[in-house]
Amino acid sequence: QSVLTQPPSVSAAPGQEVTISCSGSSSTVGNNYVSWYQQVPGTAPKLLIYDNSVRPSGIPDRFFGSKSGSSATLGISGLQTGDEADYYCGTWDGGRRVFGTGTKVTVL
Amino acid sequence: QVQLVESGGGVVQPGRSLRLSCVGSAFTFGHYAMHWVRQAPGKGLEWVAIIAYDGTNIYYAESVRGRFTISRDNFKNTLYLHMNSLSVEDTAIYYCAREDYGEYYFDYWGQGTLVTVSS
To answer: Does residue A99 register a pLDDT over 90?
Structure first.
């Protein structure tokens, strides 16, 4: 039921940078803020980015977000082994909330 | 610190009912909208339902509308999800999550409770 499309997986070596796209429509990403969540296997999701590009307290600046039109992007620079996880974008459509399909980040 | 603790999960037969609970602590529960989000085994996140801070506004995902009911008791700092007519497709970890007033993101999540629908 996801209406936000993400690539299934991305990978890079430690220290490198990856970007994850989140594609929606004018009723979702195009006109609303986007948030991003990190989910390490076996644990609950954790807020990484809100309002397109704002990091909550405690989130390192290696994580950054942006939005253009109906697409949003999460970037992770200086990749670390601890960044291996699933990442989801999220936004809303009317009163309902929607998530992306999820992207698995692998550190080679 | 802020905590959300879910309970009530378990194994249930298709067609039966189950009620989940989520207790919040270390914050003013009645000031926040609350959500249920689920995750089927090996799958992505699926938003289920939202209830406004005062219970006045409620929305459901199409996949559960008419079968699930979200409610809250702000005096008990507790969120509920009443699930009826369960099917195997409802098998998932169910998370409760908090959303601040006027915001549209989940800033805190519970650890989840597993619901398995099986005969």
So the answer is: yes
